[in-house]
Amino acid sequence: MTEIFTLSLRQLLGRWRVLVILLLAAMPTLLILLIRALGEAELAFEGEVIDLIIDGMVIGGILPIVTMTLATAAFGNELEDKTLYYLVLKPVSRVSIVLAKLLATLVVAVPLVVASGVVASALVGAETQTLGTLALALAASVTTYASIFTLAGLLTPRALAYGLVYVLVWEGLLSTIVSGVRYLSVRGYTLALLHGLDEESFAAFEQRVIEFPAAIVGTGVVIVAFFLLALYRLRTMDVP
Questions:
Q1: 212 to 133, 153, 192, 195: CA distances (angstroms)
Q2: CB crowding 3-39: b at 16 or more within 10 Å, else e
Q3: Measuring CA to CA, which residue among 141, 108, 121, 146 is closest to residue 21?
Q4: 240: confidence class by pLDDT, cuts 50, 70, 90
Q5: Which of 6, 10, 20, 76 is deepest in the core (most CB within 10 A)?
């Protein structure tokens, strides 16, 4: 498993991919620094800033796109290079293979996404406890998306394109305007986790979050279910 994890990590850290995700992760911080440099407004961790930076940029855009870019490539690279055949011939269980791929994605994605949200929030005055809550919720969200997109990378070579449509339409548009979709939305779970863990700091989300227990259960179910589906897919697919 260690060998597969190391190989996967090396594959995910291709130059163009790293540059793209680093640029995406830095956008909230760069935006805040630009606004301050121009002296356009005084920024504080409240209201519109939370909506724009945390929900709109980090949770709604950067988090799913960074995770999707990495997770779909975890198996996608193997399928494209036709090296998955040699991987499954190794005396390693399918569970270890899927777990190694998922962990490689998380090792790269979690620090980047958490830093993206936490650094930007710290710059506008978020308290230490709030930053801890944000880090925890973002890490849970990355893990959830990683499970979904790891399976997607096993299902189709166009996983990145389909994933982008899913993020924009389901997680972006429908989860915002149709309240029932939030019960089946990773973005909905993330906002509910933030509000449930720190109602005072994330009061801006109060009118558009599902119940806190539902978010916890939904997050756990999605992670486990999609991990098992990826495992089943790897066991039953015809490996080229």
A1: 14, 30, 6, 8
A2: ebbebbbebbeeeebeeebeebbbbbbeebeeeeeee
A3: 108
A4: low
A5: 76
Q: To 10 degrees, the CA torsion angle through 12, 110, 64, 179?
A: 160
Q: Which amino acid is located at 94 in the chain?
A: R
What local confidence, expressed as pLDDT, does residue 193 receive? 96
Asked whether 147 and 226 are in contact (CB, 8 A), the reply is yes
* Residue 240, helix vs strand vs coil: coil
* Rg from Cα positions in the chain: 18
Q: What are phi and psi of 131, to 5 degrees?
A: -65, -40
Tokens of 52: 């724009």
User: Residue 71 burial by CB count (10 A; 0-12/13-18/19+): exposed, middle or buried?
Assistant: buried
Phi, psi of 232 (to 5 degrees): -65, -40
pLDDT number for residue 40: 61
Tens of pLDDT, residues 75-109: 887 777 777 777 777 778 889 999 999 999 999 99
In terms of residue numbers, what domain contains 172?
Answer: 2-236
Number of independent structural domains in the chain: 1
* Rounded Cα gap, residues 50 and 204, in angstroms: 7
Q: How confident is the model at residue 167 (pLDDT cuts 50, 70, 90)?
A: very high
pTM score of the predicted model: 0.94
For residues 17 and 231, give the distance between their C-alpha atoms in angstroms, rounded to a whole number.
Answer: 26
